[in-house]
Amino acid sequence: MKLIVITSSKNIENEHHILGKMLDMGLPTLHIRKPKLSEANLKSYLKEFTKSQRKKIVIHTHLNLLMDFDLKGIHVSKRHRRARFKFFMTRTKLRLRRGHFLMGTACKSLSSLDETYKDFDYVMISPVFTNPHGHRPSFNPGTLKRIIPIYPGKVIARGGATLDSINKAQEIGFAGIAFQRFIWDNPEPLVTFQKILDRFKEAGVTIE
User: Fold this and answer.
1) Could you read off the pLDDT of 138-196 as tens digits, one per residue?
2) E-assigned strands of the chain?
3) Radius of gyration from C-alpha coordinates of the chain
4) In angstroms, rounded to a whole number, what is the distance separating the alpha carbons of residues 22 and 2?
5) Is 58 helix (H, G, I), strand (E, B) or coil?
6) Which CATH superfamily is domain 2-202 in?
7) For the segment 7-37, what is each residue's pLDDT rounded down to a tens digit?
8) For residue 104, which of 205, 18, 33 has the smallest C-alpha distance?
9) Nearest partner of 140 among 163, 118, 110, 117, judged by Cα
10) How do the domains of the chain map onto residue ranges?
11) Per the confidence metrics, is the pTM higher than 0.85?
């Protein structure tokens, strides 16, 4: 099952050290979600990682930076999808310059999932889980168990994920799970991340 960590949108103390450590510990995919960073600042941010670490990074903004760095891919927002012609040109240019790269998106309804899944390598849907931070699922587990298998290998569970969510995501049939607040609201994010790795191992779930 795919394991994704999404950065906090805010700056975290020793952030690059923490993220770099996670990548070195076995995190296969790191999403850089920093909506307030300019293109120049995001470029500087990416330079703080090693070349091997950047191969595991997916960016949410300033998608053209894919031509400056050997990144894993891009995450396409709803706003980008709506600007169809502009995004088509951006995607075409990136494909010509970079060849293959991972391209994903996110949605908050099953109808949107059906509309988008064919054009992307993965689709995050949210919120899926309930947790103490106030996340309430938008989807009925029974409905998800019927629907998710229609899109094998494509759908990532996001929103409210905790350790217990790993087993739930596997039972439903999700291709992966994304963690964000569970890690960054904890004063020791690396300890929390290690617990996630341990839970995957205990559950006998292979991390992709």
Assistant:
1) 788 888 999 898 999 999 999 889 999 999 999 999 999 999 999 999 999 999 999 99
2) 2-6, 29-32, 57-59, 73-76, 102-107, 122-125, 155-157, 176-179
3) 17
4) 15
5) strand
6) Aldolase class I (3.20.20.70)
7) 999 889 999 999 999 999 999 999 999 999 9
8) 33
9) 110
10) 2-202
11) yes
